[in-house]
Write a structure and sequence with these properties.
The structure is a homodimer of 369-residue chains. With 369 residues, chain A is of the alpha/beta class. The first copy, chain A, has 15 helices and 16 strands. In chain A, a hairpin with a 4-residue loop joins strand 7 and strand 8.
């Protein structure tokens, strides 16, 4: 089962409040999805994730393909069983990692040959294989295998790449073994070129996917360029389908994305900066590793009521991070995810009340954007 | 406040069931104390520790002295506040780490000069300083500063070292600033020499400490030698005071120690082997990292009802450990602590029922000892 319901559009911005229904439960949109690269949202267990009210998490097909591998996931009966997570899971297609992590890549019409970043072993990824792997994983939402062209690519390369991605999308759709229970999203590409974005959206919409992702953004371009690309893309996507902006999760981009009609986001930012000792707070980022916090016995964020902020001080968290203690990474990860999921809840509430512009103003001012 | 109550002695072995009352709550003995080296039981947060029913944890004075340092702990109002742990804490004196981690050691009557293992900075630790640091930390149970003579030391060296430890114990007692609320234990040394152990115990007992530790064991000698040293030492300690066997925590040594009249144990074994991917189970150790568990979807220990065993498989845990995922270390740590604390609960129950010999037989047989 997969269904998207548009509940309302915010009066002033058109931001969308909605609901996605899957076999593993409902998701309120707009939503932020914590990234669980290799069958774990780093340092979080399923109790933490439930506690955080994470409604859906991500898995990475590339990583899961290399470890533990298709055979183990298959034997486990899918990723939900393997990692003991009974809520929805979205998987990417592996495309992004093949291009960002894989070595010795060789792209052809057939697919991509690459060497594993772990052991250099040679692999071939094709639209059919990426789809099959996601069928084995059993994710509620799957992605078409796409080429992520480099941000520096010129018009001609980007055009050919986008057209290849569209042909691959058709092959993914044809290869999909379980469309009743797993929704396969098409991925709009086209770099920073308006007409290519439009062509990509047009051709994918014609294939009637149950949802659409916007890929190839947040790859080094300015925020203004990214927002402009959203401005030209989302109006071309059908209102009755969810839209997922891939790999974007900074505070400002979440709000600006929602205003431009995005329903779903994911990003490793929250969890990655946590492990390096940086907290996201209502007053901007706090680099708790800094010496200035050595005797600061206040919470990470005085406005936050997560259990880390209720019980632990910046001084303690700094100590843990300085000592490379696992608990430091864990507590900061918990807080950053709480902060972000709580922001999304505030965004949903603001759409309900038609006060999203005020929320943006308020959040940006305090965050110092 | 500090009080030890001997509730009963087991009929066949003389093993002791008791209770320690501190300002931060009661501790049932015999007890195992998880080690929280630098203000954290590695990877566990206070909710995990409560969930595990950890009744008391350890802190290491040497580590806390180097990081975050006396000034931060003082400003935080002690270690309980700093790490948000409201149950009892025991601290060692730093002696063991000065000898095992410190560089360029120079021992004198005054104390020990050493170089930090972190940055090579020079420090002097004395009985007075170790006591003062523990007063600042605010631990419920403190240790006298002792010299841990190397296991290879000869009779003369060990004798001089033991006598120095006894003189240092008197200085620690004299320096103690808060005896009403923090109990200072004397540490019996004397290597593997019966008469030195006896002399050490005799002289410390004459000083009337509220409890006694047995140090310098489990340093490379055989288990038989260690048990023999306990056999000659514990009968010399007063029945109405608790006895703590330092740094010992293997399944057999816990049971054999209890049988020889020990009330308290600590060990890094549980948490250290967890991080390397080894689980303690009712059927012995399981090295879950091994390939044989790749598709083993059974729990770590079929007899364990901890949340890890109830919800996660060996295959998943192996995957996490193989990928160096924080969650792998955390889940195995949780299980190993649960297993050990549960074993101590079984031991207490067996003392209550006078069935400790049967429990030993049963546990050893299954564990393969």
């Amino acid at each position: 089962m997969f269904r998207y319901e548009l509940i309302k559009e915010e009066k002033h911005t058109g931001a969308r409040l909605g609901r996605i229904i899957t076999d593993h439960g409902e998701i309120e949109t707009p939503i932020f999805m914590p990234v669980g690269t290799q069958a774990t949202v780093k340092s979080m267990d399923f109790r933490d994730l439930r506690d955080l009210n994470a409604q859906i998490i991500l898995g990475n097909t590339y990583h899961l393909y290399l470890r533990p591998g298709e055979e183990v996931i298959q034997a486990a009966g899918g990723l939900h069983n393997f990692m003991h997570w009974d809520r929805p899971i979205l998987t990417d297609s592996g495309g992004f990692q093949v291009f960002s992590l894989g070595d010795l890549r060789k792209i052809s019409e057939e697919g991509v040959q690459f060497a594993s970043h772990l052991d250099g072993s040679r692999h071939m990824m094709t639209p059919e294989k990426a789809t099959h792997l996601q069928n084995v994983i059993g994710s509620d939402i799957m992605m078409c295998f796409d080429e992520c062209a480099p941000a520096s690519a010129d018009y001609d390369y980007t055009k050919k790449s986008m057209e290849l991605t569209t042909r691959w999308a058709a092959r993914c759709k044809a290869a999909h073994e379980n469309p009743e229970h797993q929704a396969l999203f098409g991925i709009v590409q086209g770099g920073m070129f308006e007409d290519l974005r439009a062509k990509s959206a047009h051709d994918l919409v014609a294939m009637d996917f149950p949802g659409y992702s916007i890929g190839g953004l947040s790859v080094g371009e300015t925020k203004e360029t990214m927002y402009h690309m959203l401005d030209v893309t989302t109006p071309l996507l059908p209102k009755e389908k969810p839209r997922y902006l891939m790999g974007v999760g900074s505070v400002d981009a979440l709000i600006e994305g929602v205003i431009r009609g995005i329903d779903m986001f994911d990003c490793v930012l929250q969890t990655r900066i946590a492990r390096n000792g940086t907290a996201m707070t209502s007053r901007g980022r706090v680099v708790v590793r800094n010496a200035t916090y050595a005797k600061d016995f206040s919470p990470l964020d005085p406005e936050c009521d997560c259990y880390v902020c209720k019980h632990h001080t910046r001084a303690y968290l700094r100590h843990l991070i300085k000592c490379n203690e696992i608990l430091g990474a864990r507590l900061l990860t918990y807080h950053n995810l709480y902060f972000t999921l709580n922001l999304m809840e505030k965004i949903r509430e603001a759409i309900r009340r038609d006060t999203l512009t005020e929320l943006r103003h308020d959040v940006f001012r305090k965050y110092g954007i």
